[in-house]
Design a protein that fits this description.
This protein is of the alpha+beta class and about 230 residues long. It is about 35% helix and about 20% strand. Helix 1 (about 5-10) crosses helix 4 and helix 4 (about 80-100) crosses helix 7. Bound molecules: flavin mononucleotide. Flavin mononucleotide binds near residues 108, 199 and 203.
């Protein structure tokens, strides 16, 4: 599976098999996490075999089952654009997990924040977690806004790279499936902005990563409007 196929195949999965992550897969996950931590200065951590973090009323209500492994998304509060950076690098890990045959779900609300076993150092913030494991199912495609609502460039005027990027952006996970972002074309790159909304910055980083991975072109982050 290549990265474009991973973008297509990824859907949020909340019910997992009661099964440890394979040794080889865990090792590869740790490798990409280490790489992302080095590049971003974030503090992603893989926590395995911990049923407690998702053993809460909200998690059960949210239909999570056997969510025993997760990636804690953590970073120092002084990191510029912490939430956006967390989304960008977190999505890189999510797509890598998909390519390893694992399923994932970004989770900012329906887990036990206080029960998370990851190490949060002084000055750091636990942004959210990403449940990871072998799904009972592969999830289902989300309902999506039409591309015209997410971008003002008419489809007929889109170069192939931009169209590929937009198709991947539309498939990206966003909190509550809000998709409150806009992507415009600016020469040979794209520019993304988002409406003010809780978790909009994490979403924007996620969408930006999907766009860049599929298009091979930069998608810059426009701070204005947030
Ligand atoms: C930043 C962020 C936070 C999220 N938080 C939760 C959550 O707390 N609980 C949950 O069940 N799903 C959560 N999700 C998953 C979204 O509901 C899901 O990505 C969206 O509905 C689109 O569906 P898809 O991921 O299957 O494409 C979150 C997603 C993102 C990007």
């Amino acid at each position: 599976m290549n990265i474009r196929e991973a973008i297509q195949a990824r859907h949020s999965v909340r019910q997992f098999l009661d099964q440890p992550i394979g040794e080889a897969e865990a090792e590869k996950l740790q490798k990409i996490i280490k790489l992302c931590n080095e590049e971003s200065a974030l503090h992603f951590q893989l926590v395995q075999n911990d049923p407690e973090c998702f053993n809460t009323f909200l998690a059960h209500y949210g239909k999570f089952r056997n969510a025993n492994h997760y990636i804690a998304v953590i970073g120092h509060k002084r990191i510029k654009d912490l939430d956006e950076t967390a989304g960008y690098f977190g999505q890189r890990i999510v797509l890598e997990a998909q390519m390893l045959g694992l399923n994932t779900c970004w989770v900012a609300g329906t887990y036990g924040k206080g029960k998370c076993k990851a190490e949060v150092l002084d000055g750091e913030k636990l942004v959210c977690v990403i449940a990871v494991g072998y799904g009972e199912n592969d999830g289902v495609p989300h309902k999506s806004k039409p591309m015209e609502k997410l971008c003002t460039v008419p489809k007929a005027d889109m170069p192939a790279w931009f169209k590929n990027g937009m198709l991947a952006a539309v498939l990206a996970p966003t909190a509550l499936n809000q998709q409150r972002f806009r992507i415009e074309m600016d020469g040979d790159h794209a520019v993304i902005s988002a409406q003010k909304f809780p978790m909009a910055k994490i979403d924007m980083g996620i969408v930006r990563y999907n766009f860049e991975a599929a298009s091979g072109h930069k998608c810059l982050y426009k701070n204005a409007g947030i």
